[in-house]
Amino acid sequence: MTKEYKTITEISGPLVFVEKTEPVGYGELVEIRTASGEVKRGQVLDTSDEIVVVQVFEGTGGLSKDSSVRFTGDVIKMPLSPSIIGRVLSGSGRPRDGGPPIVPEVEREIIGAAINPASREKPRAFIQTGISTIDGTNTLVRGQKLPIFSGAGLPHNDVALQIARQAKVVGEAEQFAVVFCAMGITNEEAQHFMADFERTGALERAVIFLNLADDPAVERLLTPKLGLTTAEYLAFDLDMHVLVIYTDMTNYCESLRQMGAAREEVPGRRGYPGYMYTDLATNYERAGIIKGKKGSITQFPILTMPGDDITHPIPDLSGYITEGQLIVSRELHRKGIYPPIDIRPSLSRLMNSGIGAGHTREDHRAVSDQLYAYYAEGCDLRGLAAIVGKEALSERDKLILEFADQFERRFVNQGRDEDRSIIETLTIGWELLSMLPETMLTRIDDKYIKKYHPKYAGTAKKE
Amino acid sequence: MEVGRVKRVAGPVVQAVGLKASMYDLVLVGEEGLMSEVIGISGDKHIIQVYEDTSGIKPGEPVKETGGPLVAQLGPGILTQIYDGVQRPLPLLAERSGDFISRGLFVDGVDHKKKWEFQPLVKKGDTVKPGQPIGVVQEQLLIKHKIMVPPKHKGGVVKEIYSGNFTVEETVCVLEDGSQLTMLQKWPVRQARPVVRKLPPTIPLRTGQRVIDGFFPLAKGGTAAIPGGFGTGKTVMQQTLSKWSDVDIVIYVGCGERGNEMADLLHEFPELVDPRTNRPLLERSIVYANTSNMPVAAREASIYTGMTTAEYYRDMGYDVLMTADSTSRWAEAMRELASRLEEMPGEEGYPAYLAARLADFYERAGRAEILAGGEGSVAVVGAVSPPGGDFTEPVTQNTLRIVKVFWALDSRLTQRRHFPSINWLDSYSLYEKDLESWYAENVAADWNQLKRRAMAILQENAELEEIVMLVGSDALPEDQQLTLEVARMIINFWLAQSAFHPVDTFCPYKKQYDLMKAILTYRDYAFDALHRGVAVDQIKSVPSKDALAKLRMVEDYEPELKKVMDQMKAEFEALK
């Protein structure tokens, strides 16, 4: 039995300073009992011969110098068993659905060790989300981490839910699960997610971690780690394909900054700690596929960009770790287009390994590049048209302008329950490209034009 | 060797007492013996950065000295390896600890059991000097690994020299003074290996990328920076360079990289075939993979470990290309460690010695006269990832003060799917002048002029585009409309290059020249026709012009090109 100490010397924000006699390990799990008998959990942030600094996850309210501190001699672990599927847990992993505690089959450290890069399998299984702007132009593959960068008041949650509903690998029946981590979202938002999970039956194969806006901010630092430890268990022990959605990473980073300030650390950009990149990486990098294992982890972090500013440290650092990003655009949203994904700044870095012959269709890359090129040019031309008027534009420019409008209306825009197959998406792409003369399709090989251009439909042999 | 004890643990930084170790000495922390490095000494305390996760380490645990700094092991068998930042082979780590990397594993960078066939190059009685090859091992089918007298060894007269199969630890040569030489060298990673002198950069490093070779060439032994916000195609660019550059050895340092991208690289590398030799590219490569979630201190070390192996092959007389992706992650690792040490921060929280460290690193590149006589080179391409694409931030600025080539990746080009997204107006190469005579002799006498003409057209295009943004292109005079058209051809038919197209991904010098010449020939015909009074729309719609677009994707393009040019000539003659 480990000793209890009543030697708290200072409580400052989420931090508790304890003087002690025995050596305590870095990162160790700590339990603090208040006078009223409530037990709060924390973690060792700094340990030395003289003093130990503990970060308390569940808030320091109710703690006093009389509270007794117990060092467990162990790092924080997540209890796991197959029965965890279907459960709703708090942001620190305690039952929130009124159910019993999880009887663990295994316990895993929540600070996951890094996957050995040499043991990773290259992700290349195309996931069809049924959304054209993703499947067609920013293709997702299994094992990828693709965040949604959004802004306040935009329908990023609807997009995430639609992906969760529709995502599948074509022609494969598989075991899959959803891990949903909510960090600091409002009760209302949480209800929205839960209602959708219930409506579609997803709840039965989901594990849900809820840290709501009024839950302790420090607890948020734990939530994704618990969720990802669960995801690793489901993927690599139980052979499931796991989709992890966590929202909102911005709240997580705010907590990180809050902790940094409490520890009086030297702040980095905009007050966020210098190690934020490494900290984010230890979450985001827990996605992927391992050689010889059946399961996989695909991540959809959602973050709202403060002031829609993509250069803000949170989206900026995230973008350097994740394999691309989907940008939800206010401008498209105002035009009434759903999903308002702006493909120009969006990117999927693993797209190339998941598309083409054998995955989607041989012409996919070329069609996507061509759509991108003229849509981007069309958007630039809008600025010009606003100054000189459409009439002053050249014929070619007018054509491209019209193309961009149609692209938004027919390719980007789709129903909230519309599940387009990749072939449907590419067909829409070709229809749009056929608005332009064939000589303008410089990025597409002639053989694909002959094979897929609507003009030649019926003349070439179908695949 | 002293054994000290841990006094304080805060993240990757540990304080210990009771040590005698010097700065940058390697020490082993805790019961598990975690690899660590001394980075500060203050009073009786040693400040130590640990290369692995420190969870569970307690005050009072032992700290063991190893008696020296972090070294790279250098010897046959490094090629084809995939290492982490402190030169532990990742496949061996996977064998030992499974799919996730556990702590406290100590694995040799070079296999100490494998036997290599050593062929002596010197005989008994010969005098050998530092750096001189005493023998050779066929490390890979096409790469001979020279076994050299270590640079810090004083050399001497050969007393015994053996030939046959040996492990790297067995003696292959004995000198008169009794010193025994093996095939294994150990070199402190933070120290540059010596050369006789550095040589000027007068030979281009061919990359097969039109925009680079043509407009912004890199020299052998040169330094280049690729800055770019995320999503500008930086990583693809670096991978393309590793694949296609005409160097003997490629060293790829993934510093704070994405795990899936490393997996992609490790998956792709063994399948890639070196276009010059038809052998797997991996046979001449070394990969350092320290992903962003692997320990931050090992990330900081990875750049130096990579550079040390690069210098080692340079010392054998090889041309080496080292790509570091990304040096910003490296600088951030420095910042993170500095902040844990509670050092006074400089600009944006980076340590004040950031500029000095960057300069030290890039200065280790270069073409040089090596100790053995002859030449070798290490070229460095460092990616920087400026936060928010802001080039004024300290890492980018300090890098630009040192490197000679700047390939400015541009997200606007990426959005238009123009690859490689190197902005042709913002980029520069200070090697251009040094390399002109090489190009004139080896590619074509008029290549330098053609390049200048093309560049002038692109410059004019940029100015005209601003006007077009205001008034539309139809309002421009006809000759300027033509210039826009020619610029568009240079951009779409020549500057754009697909890394994923089997033919277009690599473009030889001759083809670069021929295609540019064809575009500028069109320009000459076009202006000639304009002066004869032909309407611009007619000139712009000659069919042969569009035929040029696809030539870059044709392997055996020459007959086709001739046909197109003949057709173009005929079409312009027919224009009235």
Provide a compact summary of the structure.
Chain A is α/β, with parallel strands linked by helices. Chain A contains 13 helices and 21 strands.
What would the keywords be for this entry?
heterodimer; B: about 575 residues; Elongation Factor Tu (Ef-tu), domain 3; OB fold (Dihydrolipoamide Acetyltransferase, E2P); Rossmann fold; 4 domains; 10-stranded mixed sheet; 6-stranded antiparallel beta barrel; 28 strands; globular
What does this structure look like?
The complex is a heterodimer of chains A (463) and B (576). Chain A is an alpha/beta fold and 463 residues long. Chain A has 13 helices and 21 strands. In chain A, 31% of the residues lie in helices and 24% in strands. Chain A has an eight-stranded mixed beta sheet, sandwiched between helices. Chain A has a seven-stranded antiparallel beta sheet with strand order 1-7-4-5-6-3-2, with no helix packed on it. In chain A, helix 10 crosses helix 11, helix 10 crosses helix 12 and helix 11 (395-412) packs antiparallel against helix 12. Chain A is elongated, with a radius of gyration of 25 Å. Chain B has 576 residues and is an alpha+beta fold. In chain B, helix 5 (296-314) crosses helix 6 and helix 11 (447-471) packs across helix 12 (478-495). Classes of the chains: A alpha/beta (463), B alpha+beta (576). Chains A and B meet through strand 5, strand 11, helix 6, helix 7 and strand 21 of A and strand 1, helix 1, helix 4, helix 6 and helix 9 of B. Strand 5 of chain A pairs antiparallel with strand 1 (3-10) of chain B.
